[in-house]
Every structure is written in C-alpha cells, then in structure tokens.
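Students often ask why we bother encoding 3D structure as a string. The short answer is that it lets us treat folding as translation between two languages. Here is a chain of 159 residues written in the first language.
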Amino acid sequence: MPTTGGSIGSLAGFATVAGNGNGADMTDDALWTFTMPANGLIQQTDSLVIDLLFQTAANANNKNAGINIGGRQVNFATVFTFNNLMLYVRIMITYLSATALNIGLAGISNSGAIAGGGVNYTVPSMATNATIITITGSSPTTGAANDIRLFSGAATYIK
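And here it is in the second language, the structure alphabet:
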C-alpha cells in the first residue's frame, strides 16, 4: 500500500557557465552524470525530481534530451526544433518496486513551447545496487555538436 512521506533532500547538483553540449553525432551524449545510492528510492511514492536548464542552438535542427537510469534510456516522446531558446525540464522518477520506476519528462521553453514523454520502466535492482543516472542530449538527425547544452541541474529526493 502506498505511503506518504514528507522529507525532501538534495542528491546532486550541477552548474557550468559554458554549458555541456552534445557531441557531433546522432547518439545520446552524456551531459551530466551522478549516482543514486542503493536504496535511494525504497517505497512507493518515493521520488527523485531532477530540474534542468538547457539552451538550444540557433538553428532548426532536431534536438532531444533525456535520462539514462540504470542503463535504460528515456527521451522526450518527440524531437523538438526549438531555435535559440532556454528550455526548463523537470524529470520525475517515482518508485514502483525495486526494479520498476515511473519516469516522466516535461519541458517548457521561454517561448512557451512544450515537450513531454515517459512511462513505466524496468531497471536493475535499486535495492542492492547504486544507480548511475545520466542526463543526455542529442542532435538525432543532423549530428551537429552543441545543438543542446545543459547549464544547470539539481536532483532532489522527495520521500
């Protein structure tokens, strides 16, 4: 039966002046990586919220962002072509069981354009393993470097 929590705590933070950009390829590139300790999420309703601030390149190239958690890549449902915009993204990861998570992504640009994605995912056991979490960015059709750059992020537990 789900329980209700009430505590909030910081897991990781990231900031850079220049931004970490995707590489000159069409793959999901690591922009920020951190580790959630074993048992970081241990009961239903335990969540990890990740807030991110991206900048998109001044072009009409396709861009995407996502998260790799425990080897499982989850991207926005569709690519976006935001041209020279800031993009605020919130990723919410909620515990369902030791090997199942609900992962949701939502983003809004400073023009008001929005993007989203997510669903339930199976991951390696979080009860016995630390979980590596990587925020990713890509230029999935053009392969242009720095189509999306990550400037800051914060990962917060909600229990």
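Translate back mentally: Residues 26 and 140 are 4 Å apart (CA to CA). Keep this in mind for the problem set.
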